[in-house]
Design goal:
This is Magnesium transporter MgtE. The protein is mainly α. Helix content is 66%, strand content 6%. α19 packs parallel to α21, α19 crosses α22 and α20 packs antiparallel against α21.
């Protein structure tokens, strides 16, 4: 019999799990369910019907459900629906068993009354940790950190440090780094798990710890934290307050979620959509997300139309000019979007932090000039061959040359200004830049046409 591939094996397991649920065969279900990867458990759970999930809650403990919710990838509004199916005490126990930062992520999707209710019936220690994290502003290091880490003191031996590590490891989110603190809980150093394992038991922690620790402030933006962890290739980073007290750590799995969230957010803004991270099943919901930008672009488009109307006299005299309006507008929009993408990415990754912004703009202007010169020369030749009119080709070519320089500068300048004003540069979205550059291109094109009208009228 041919061996099943991974996808077929997973499908078979899903069918067996559903059958076990329907038959209410708890032993078979638990054996199959707890053998698969936690991510697959979460996927299976999220796709079940409400009736099937009610069976599942009876088959699993709060601790086992906690692992499901830690790996769950669902829409924000679905958390409330899922939790409402469970007994409140079961939910409170489940949240208590989750890592504190993951529990906070779930509670942040609920209203204040629901949060208060669950915290009230939760055990005091877990509730205290969660309350502490809930106070931090969203999208900061404090909001994504966990308080489940291992910390030791510098005046300990490696042997005693390993004892603490073994004792606290089951509750810690990661043990690859062990942080060293002083008596007042100031962050003093860090030791890797590898160093602890290979060092003699009687060696003092202070002798092997690294005292130059890369850390982040509790109020630091999560995007900055992600960038720092990427730059330093860290699996975890400690979070400190303004007095250098160790408050928690941020692990790489949380940062991957942040990077995914930030990328989706930036892509949404570049596309002119309020949220592209979810697929809307309702056309009305989808329309609400897209409509605001479309209304703004509609009015900008009307301004475009009025500009063309302003040059109605020019068009009446040389009607052939209308043929090249889409070409000029399209080229300006494309080059502006290219510059926008480069600059927004450079700002997001920090590549432009130390670079002179004037030199950056000059580089983009030269890039636009080179592209404009090549495209302009090509257009002059094509129009001359097509229409047999050298001056018309020259007008279109010069317009493209000037437009590409200006559009490239606009695509680079707008996000830099927004970043300077502490506004997310991604809101200078592709559709927005394209429409603005359409305005610029029309002014340049018809302005030059008006100046050289005598050469165009035959």
């Amino acid at each position: 019999m041919q061996e099943l591939n991974e996808k077929e094996q997973l499908q078979l397991e899903v069918e067996q799990l559903i059958q076990a649920l329907e038959d209410e065969n708890i032993d078979t279900f638990r054996t199959l369910f707890l053998e698969i990867h936690p991510y697959e458990r979460a996927k299976f759970y999220s796709k079940l019907s409400s009736d099937a999930r009610m069976h599942l809650y009876r088959f699993l403990s709060p601790t086992e459900m906690a692992e499901v919710f830690e790996n769950l990838e669902i829409e924000e509004n679905e958390y409330e629906d899922f939790l409402s199916e469970m007994d409140p005490t079961f939910v409170a126990d489940m949240l208590s068993q989750m890592y504190a930062d993951d529990a906070v992520d779930v509670l942040n999707e609920l209203n204040k009354d629901q949060v208060a209710s669950y915290l009230t019936i939760m055990d005091d220690e877990a509730a205290g940790e969660i309350k502490q994290l809930l106070h931090y502003e969203e999208y900061t290091a404090g909001s994504i950190m966990t308080t489940e880490y291992v910390a030791i003191h510098s005046n300990q031996t490696v042997k005693s440090a390993m004892y603490i590590l073994k004792r606290e490891a089951p509750q810690a989110e990661t043990i690859y780094y062990v942080y060293v603190i002083d008596e007042e809980k100031h962050l003093a150093g860090v030791i890797s798990l590898r160093d602890l394992i290979v060092t003699d038991d009687d060696t003092m922690v202070s002798e092997i710890m690294g005292d130059r620790v890369v850390s982040v402030s509790v109020s630091e933006d999560q995007e900055e934290v992600a960038r720092k962890m990427k730059d330093y290739n860290l699996l975890a980073v400690p979070v400190i307050d303004f007095q250098n007290h160790l408050l928690g750590i941020i692990t790489v799995d949380d940062i991957i979620d942040v990077m995914d969230e930030e990328a989706s957010d930036d892509y949404s803004k570049l596309a002119g959509i309020s949220d592209v991270d979810s697929v809307d099943k309702s056309p009305i919901s989808a329309a609400k997300k897209r409509l605001p930008w479309l209304v703004i672009l509609l009015f900008l488009g009307m301004l475009n139309a009025s500009l063309i109307g302003h040059f109605e006299g020019t068009l009446e005299k040389v009607a052939i000019l209308a043929v090249f309006i889409p070409l000029i507008g399209g080229m300006s929009g494309n080059t502006g979007t290219q510059a926008l993408a480069v600059v927004v990415r450079g700002i997001a990754t920090g590549d432009f932090e130390d670079e002179n912004k004037f030199l950056l703009l000059m580089r983009e202007a030269v890039t636009g000039a080179i592209n404009g010169l090549i495209c302009g020369i090509l257009v002059i030749g094509v129009v001359f061959i097509w229409k047999g009119d050298f001056f018309l080709g020259l007008l279109v070519g010069i317009s493209i040359f000037v437009t590409l320089i200006v559009a490239t500068l606009a695509g680079a300048f707008v996000p830099l200004i927004m970043h300077k004003l502490k506004v997310d540069p991604a809101v200078a979205s592709g559709p927005f830049i394209t429409t603005i550059n359409d305005l610029i291109s029309i002014i340049i094109y018809f302005g030059l046409a008006s100046l050289f009208m005598s050469y165009l009228i035959h």
